[in-house]
Write a structure and sequence with these properties.
Layout lengths: L3 H6 L1 H10 L4 H34 L5 H38 L18 E6 L12 H8 L2 E2 H8 L5 E2 L2 H20 L3 E3 L4 E3 H7 L11 E2 L4 E3 L4 H6 L4 E4 L5 E10 L18 E11 L4 H18 L4 E5 L11 E9 L4 E10 L3 H6 L1 E4 L7 E2 L1 E9 H11 L7 E2 L5 H4 L3 E2 L4
Helix pairs in contact: 3-4
The chain binds one RNA strand of 92 nucleotides through helix 3 and helix 4.
RNA sequence: GGAGAGGUGGCCGAGAGGUCGAAGGCGCACGCCUGCUAAGCGUGUGUAGGGCUAAAACUCUACCGAGGGUUCGAAUCCCUCCCUCUCCGCCA
């Protein structure tokens, strides 16, 4: 959510900035129109209320017959108030729903662009490996090794579900534990285990609603929503709180399952485990003072890269252009790892500086010093990393001619094996 | 799920229809005093949205779990819901 005052005072600039992320100037005008209506109504309503309490306060001091006259007067005031207040509530609702639909302002350092083709590759780290044989995709390797079972996943839960088994399940669990260990012990994050089902207002706070309702699993009976990312509960951890400046920055890391309906991606990436309805992810999250968020974004990217690098994977860092930025982020980097079997760069992390967009929606503030006005914090998130695609990259990168897969050095204490071999 | 108790400012805690944004205390901030990381004294200390301002000051409105209702007037009375605690039941 944007600052309404900013929209009022720097209208043309806001329109210009939002046009970069595909938001029409008319949407800004619509917000301003509601805002003007709201303020006009509010002034009327408040003047009436002030008059009403003024008279009410003097009633007990009057004689009986004067009291009756005044009571009648206030009754009349009250009935006009009722209708004006209803109108005001209506306008406020309109204003809020329009305001919630405006995307975040892009950071000045974000390159202009229309879509993902205009994203910029910032750096590529590590060499895509070469093989003396034709590397196989993970959807062949997994079943051959007896570690991924597609058919039974579909039998149990339908398409886009799969089962990890034996060393596959163990490898994923090892990855999760190792990543959490690195982030908590070396990168300074505090581990969180959050709920996977959250209330509707959490989705609004994180910016998933009202825009992206299609992609979220929803339990209608209790109005609980399955999280598509740990970013959602983490954003809401400090909702409606005023933090002390000394608490910032806060750094959290959470491992969760994530659930996505993938309605928008029907037919895309249906092969393998690249895009399932349920997947696991380790997510980093930071809350900072506004002036610290730019540096914090670079830090989150560095923390995510550290994981990819220590796993020995070839990866690249991509700076997302304005047209591909989405509604919430002011600036975003993706990290993509090379998967030699399926021959593509896979997005394993998306790191965003959301500036005050989520903080405003979620009402997360901090106070620089006692007596000072509270200010909105900046929030940042980044995957560190997404499990299925890291599994893909590992299996495909470390496959051997004999069909076995080498376990990367850093994971061996966690997997308790240095190689995964096909069943005999 | 059943029975009971309760939800008030950063925290504790009064208030039980009429200047109550809310006593008192703790905490915090500033000042004074005191030569010795103690004590004392004084002052201040919620949030949001309007109006007026260059900005303040100032002023208005709302908020005592949430939403309705009664009333000239509700933190105070009534209804519904949510949450917490205790006991019982059930359960990984």
């Amino acid at each position: 959510m944007l600052d309404l005052r900013l929209i009022r005072e720097r209208t043309e600039w806001v329109k210009q900035e939002l046009s970069k992320v595909g938001c029409l100037p008319e949407e800004v005008d619509a917000v301003l129109a509601e805002d003007a209506r709201r303020r006009a109504l509010l002034q009327k309503v408040e003047a009436l209320r002030a008059r009403r309490s003024e008279i009410s306060r003097m009633i007990p001091k009057l004689g009986p017959e004067d009291q009756e006259i005044r009571k009648e007067e206030v009754r009349n005031l009250g009935s006009t108030l009722v209708s004006l207040e209803a109108e005001l509530a209506q306008v406020e609702k309109q204003l809020e729903s329009k305001l919630l639909l405006l995307p975040n302002l892009p950071d000045p350092s974000v390159p202009l662009g229309r879509d993902e083709r205009d994203n910029q590759i910032i750096r590529t780290v590590g060499e895509p490996p070469h093989y003396s044989f034709q590397p196989r995709p993970h959807w062949e390797l997994g079943p051959a090794l007896g570690i991924i079972d597609f058919e039974r996943g579909v039998k149990i839960a339908g398409s886009r579900f799969y089962i990890l088994q034996g060393w596959g399940a163990r490898l994923q669990r090892a990855l999760i534990t190792w990543m959490l260990d690195v982030h908590t012990k070396e990168h300074g994050y505090t581990e969180i285990y959050p709920p996977y089902l959250v209330k509707r207002e959490c989705l609004v706070g994180a910016g998933q609603l009202p825009r992206f309702a299609d992609n979220i699993y929803h339990d209608a009976e209790d109005d609980l929503w399955l999280i598509g990312t740990a970013e959602i509960p983490l954003t809401n951890l400090h909702r409606d709180e005023i933090l002390e400046a000394s608490q910032l920055p806060l750094s959290y890391v959470a491992y969760t399952a994530c659930f996505r309906r993938e309605k928008m991606s029907a037919g895309r990436d249906v092969r393998g485990i690249k895009r399932g309805h349920q997947f696991d992810k380790v997510e980093m999250y930071k809350l900072t003072a506004p002036e610290d968020s730019s540096a914090a974004l670079e830090q989150i990217v560095a923390d995510a890269e550290d994981i990819a690098r220590r796993l020995g994977l070839a990866y690249r860092v991509v700076l997302i252009c304005t047209g591909d930025l989405g509604a919430v982020a002011a600036k975003k980097y993706d990290i993509e790892v090379w998967a030699p079997g399926c021959g593509e760069w896979l997005e394993v992390s998306s790191c965003s500086n959301c500036t005050d967009y989520q903080a405003r929606r979620s009402n997360i503030r901090f106070r620089r010093a006692s007596g000072r006005k509270p200010e909105f914090v900046h929030t940042l998130n980044g995957s560190g990393l997404a499990l299925p695609r890291i599994m893909i990259a590992l299996l495909e990168t470390y496959q051997q001619a004999d069909g076995s897969v080498i376990v990367p050095e850093v994971l061996r204490p966690y997997v308790d094996a240095d190689r995964i071999v096909p069943p005999t």
